[in-house]
Amino acid sequence: MTIRYPRPLRPGDRVGVTSPSSGVPEPLRARFDVAVRTVEEAGYEVVVGRCMDGATHVSASAAERAAELTGMLTDPSIRAVVPPWGGETAVDLLPLLDFETIGRAEPTWVVGYSDMSTLITPLTLRTGVATVHGNSLMETPYRPPEGLLSWLDVVAAPQGQPFTQTPPGRYRVAGRDDWIADPGIRDLTLDAESTWTRLDGDGDVEVEGRLIGGCVETLAHLAGTRYLDTAGFAGDEPLLVYVEACEDSAFTICRQLHGMRLAGFFDRAAAVLVGRTRATDSPTLTQHEAVLDALGPLRVPVVADVECGHVPPYLPLVNGARGRVLHTAVRSQIVQTLG
């Protein structure tokens, strides 16, 4: 399968906003408006879809959400699609999406994380079109700390030109901003020091491969199905697989990662990147130990506490990009190339 990259966004391009999973409750509409203005200030026209209702856990019926997402992905005037955030049950869209039709259309950037992993990872695996695992619309107003990029930077990056991200050395320990009281907040609270952590042993890591991955809690339910089949993806190239946990306990994450490994998702992994998490440890098993218990048998480098999950700040990764990871005692970085 050849990886195809949507063309870089240019000023005046249209960005579609739809909620394939959860919509926006009325009290958070002010933050939503700030986020839309942020994208407009970057030079783009924003097109807001009809599937936005935040009264329940879904923004509309599965058929309506699938139709709106498909419509945006096959509309040549829309160059990127971003949801307000994730949600809970985007899995109900998968059998309703026409991957062949989407794959034949001119590639469009799709951005998101959390429950959006349920859609963007299968989109890349089934169609070969690169997608962005990165901060969603509601986080877009935040200014990235030094060393990291916003999804807006990634979708405008020239094809074939490498871009590098390095950990800023700080993260947010607990809590979240009150977007109802302060919908315009743009500064991240990063109140603790951080580094990447190698789990499988000591020594430097320098490895290359195609990036693919997402949120454990949502992808685990696709393991063994055609939606998470990495066979044939990017030919025989090695993969840089990244995973991150939102909230499940260490026992649950351990079982889910074991299942994904047994289903073959990690078969071609040259290394595994693990996002930093606030999910709880279990009485006799930490989150780090859960990862190592499930993925240690791979005998590849496993680097944890990467900024690619639910804990701010956010490090966007492109499913399908060529990646090179460097992790030593003095420097950590990931270089991505859209080509």
Tell me what you see in this structure.
The structure is a single chain. By secondary structure, the chain is an alpha/beta fold. 22% of the residues lie in helices and 22% in strands. The protein contains 8 helices and 16 strands. Strands 6-16-15-10-11-12-13-9 form an 8-stranded mixed β-sheet. Helix 7 (250-262) packs parallel to helix 8. The radius of gyration is 19 Å and the shape is globular. The chain starts with 13 loop residues before the first strand and ends with a strand. The mean pLDDT is 97.
Q: Helicity, in percent?
A: 10-25%
Number of helices: 8
CA(first)-CA(last) distance: 13 Å
Shape: globular
Please give the largest β-sheet.
8 strands, mixed
Strand order within the widest sheet? 6-16-15-10-11-12-13-9
- Oligomerization state: single chain
What are the segments in which pLDDT stays under 50 over at least 5 consecutive residues?
Answer: none
- Hey, roughly how much beta strand do the residues contain? 15-25%
> What is the typical, i.e. mean, pLDDT?
97
Give the tally of β-strands.
16
The radius of gyration over CA amounts to 19 Å
Order of helices and strands: EHEHEHEHEHEEEEEHEHEHEEEE
Structural class: alpha/beta
Q: What keyword list fits this structure?
A:
8 helices, eight-stranded mixed beta sheet, alpha/beta, six-stranded mixed beta sheet
Could you give the topology of this structure?
Elements: E1 14-17, H1 29-41, E2 45-48, H2 62-73, E3 78-82, H3 99-104, E4 109-112, H4 117-127, E5 131-133, H5 151-155, E6 163-165, E7 170-171, E8 192-193, E9 197-198, E10 205-215, H6 216-219, E11 239-244, H7 250-262, E12 269-275, H8 287-295, E13 302-306, E14 317-319, E15 322-327, E16 332-337
Parallel strand pairs: 1-2, 1-3, 3-4, 4-5, 10-11, 11-12, 12-13
Antiparallel strand pairs: 5-14, 6-16, 7-8, 9-13, 10-15, 15-16
